Amino acid sequence: MSNSAPEDETTILPKSKRLKHENEAEDKLSDLPDCVILHILSFLNAKEVVRTCILSTRLKNLWKRVPTLVLHSTDFSTFKSFTKFVSKILSLRDGSIALQTLDFERVGSIEPHLLKRIVNYAFARNVQRFGMSVKGDICHILPCISSCRTLTSLKLSVSPKGRHNYGRTLFPKSLDLPALTSLHLGNFAFCASEKGRTEPFSGFKKLNSLVIDNCTVKDAQILCILSETLVNLTMRNHSSDVYKIELAAPSLCMFAFSGTPYQKLCGSNLSSVKEVNIDAEMLSNYTEPPLVLLSWLLELANIKSLTVSASTLQVLSLIPDLLKDKLTSLCNLKSLKVQMKPLSYGLSMTLRTAKLQKESKAGSEPSSSIPDGIVDFLIQNSPSAEVDIIDCSRFGSSIDHLPPFPGSSIFPQFLQPSSRESVVDDLRQRIQQLEQAVLQVQLYIQLAHEEISRERDEMSAIQGHMTMLSKTLAALKRQMQTMGLWQ
Fold this sequence. Notes:
By secondary structure, the protein is α/β, with parallel strands linked by helices. The protein has twelve helices and 19 strands.
């Protein structure tokens, strides 16, 4: 008896008939209605959509009617080929078809005239969902966006142009977007309106979801998020900017944060928030833990679901005598999830320094990835809450084995866009940050030398990066002295 797979009917047909049969089977896509094919094509990027025109005569021109345009420069080998493709597709697409979604992303600079053409094309066709991630100034296109009556989703992410990250794009004080339900902003600065407050979102009467990614405030101490309809709020921050976030969102149900928590959170009524997700980090050259992290848990008192990363628990554990305090919140907690993943280099170094200092005083052993007692501290008022430990990585996250040092992660805020208008003042601040980083590495080497003397490769790498930091700092100071800007 043969063990080979059974033959289907096409394998026993003559070759000519088999080819005809295969062609007929392959062209079944053409039997679908246009609306179904267009829906399928809307999930592809524009380059892939155009390529489908060779599949059959039926699809030759159908790509021109797809209601979505996903234009990413990473899908092309050169910027020249990308810009040529963008120009062609804007010219050849059927202009009578409404554009539901445009997602444009350019890694690197882009010519202002092309950027403006893309924006004008989208909003002239009543775009509903618009996303743009570019490098450079977009102030000239903001007026085109400011009064779109059909826009329901807007994502704008702007990186500074040039080698140095000076300044952020100012977010307009007023936008007339009556249908907007989802807003995602990256690298913007919000200007104060009055009394040191800024309220950039109060005009969006239907806003449901808001993402604030690495934004800051300018000439203000309070960022007020005022919205009757806001349900989901996500914030990401990778700087040490200190300001207050005032929440006036009675419908808010979910709050998520990732990055360095140096902003104080407050609100008149946060009892509506039921789900919180926090992935906190700590800058390597800041030895003091961000105490506001604990205040967040006190403000968000009625949450039912709390998800935290292992790094969040480590940052909390650095707060002096934390476990001796009585937690007055989290009484309604039903679920606590801890996501295990490798710690960043900066936090790993901070933790090892703190633990080595503790060991030198008390002779104690380093704790595990989840600090002792921290989980019990969080559920002390909800002892029946379900606790899940989730492994989010294939790699171990023990802080007793430092991950390889990636070039600049020891001082990530050094590379972040500056909110200072004066380049000189900004350079002085960054030099001070470097000085703090050097001191932190020196302390770490001093404390860790005996413990990891056996791990010569690790110690050698740390000392090498210490040398790099010192040389960078010295070169910056010499340049500033030459310019007469540093004493």
